[in-house]
Structure to design on (289 residues):
């Protein structure tokens, strides 16, 4: 439900409300001018003067002060929730999640979250997914890939055009052992005793990633691993335990070098078809400030 917050800054009856005759440009501005404002829906104005109803999170997030605007939210644990357009529903063992459409080759399925000309310098959020089949983490030959390619088995979060990296969510193949004799190519970059343990992900990713696997033992085709969700820092095996120590899990936090008002894009990617691998998403929420 969208709520119109109106009234006076000095109102004793409802200190959370502010005047629609002087709409502010962000949730942060509302919180600064009306410190008692609760988390709720508000009407704000974008840089072009157009009004927009947005959800403002008025408590601290990601170790940063209050006043976050939510730009994306999905909770597939709600049985009335639908997948974003173009995504395919997985449903098994009480888990509902959204994966790629059926494909036979490398592919990224995208969803764009409008920011509507509202300026921001920070992005905070969390994402929960599940493993299907045999995803291979960061492609071991990622030097032939760029940010526009399916460089990851998992999720790439970017903003703007050309794309600028925010965060990468990697789905590695197994959590307790390497895949056969590959030396860790399909494991998390932070996996101990891996041939890639001292190699960074693509330069545009840097350290801005989370990595987990959902398969405790040998990953099998046509298997939806619903017992272990990804990127939550829980149920971590020996080949991902270092990744599970990343600060902030399950929340990511990115501070941008310069302000932007460009849309955020989420791409669910894999370098093989869905008969081999997929990373269905169960939950996400993304905020900017």
């Amino acid at each position: 439900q969208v709520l119109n917050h109106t009234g006076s800054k000095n109102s004793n009856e409802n200190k959370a409300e502010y005047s629609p005759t002087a709409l502010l440009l962000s949730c942060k501005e509302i919180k600064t001018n009306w410190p008692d404002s609760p988390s709720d829906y508000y009407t704000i104005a974008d840089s072009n003067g157009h009004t927009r109803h947005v959800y403002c999170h008025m408590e601290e997030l990601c170790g940063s002060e209050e006043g976050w605007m939510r730009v994306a939210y999905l909770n597939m644990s709600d049985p009335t929730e639908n997948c974003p357009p173009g995504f395919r529903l997985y449903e098994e063992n009480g888990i509902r999640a959204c994966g790629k459409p059926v494909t036979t080759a490398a592919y990224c399925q995208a969803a764009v979250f409008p920011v509507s000309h509202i300026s921001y310098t920070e992005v905070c959020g969390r994402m929960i997914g599940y493993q299907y089949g045999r995803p291979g983490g960061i492609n071991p030959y990622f030097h032939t890939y760029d940010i526009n390619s399916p460089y990851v088995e998992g999720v790439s979060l970017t903003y703007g055009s050309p794309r600028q990296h925010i965060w990468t969510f990697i789905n590695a193949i197994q959590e307790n052992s390497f895949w056969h004799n590959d030396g860790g190519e399909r494991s998390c970059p932070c996996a101990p005793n891996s041939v890639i343990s001292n190699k960074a992900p693509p330069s545009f990713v840097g350290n801005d990633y989370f990595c987990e696997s959902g398969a405790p033992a040998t990953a099998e085709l046509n298997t939806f691993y619903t017992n272990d969700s990804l990127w939550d820092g829980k149920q971590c095996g020996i080949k991902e335990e270092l990744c599970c120590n990343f600060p902030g899990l399950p929340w990511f936090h990115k501070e941008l070098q310069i302000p932007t008002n460009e849309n955020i894009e989420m791409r669910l990617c894999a370098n093989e078809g869905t008969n081999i691998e997929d990373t269905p998403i169960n939950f996400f929420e993304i905020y900017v400030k």
In short: Residues 1-16 have pLDDT under 50 and may be disordered.
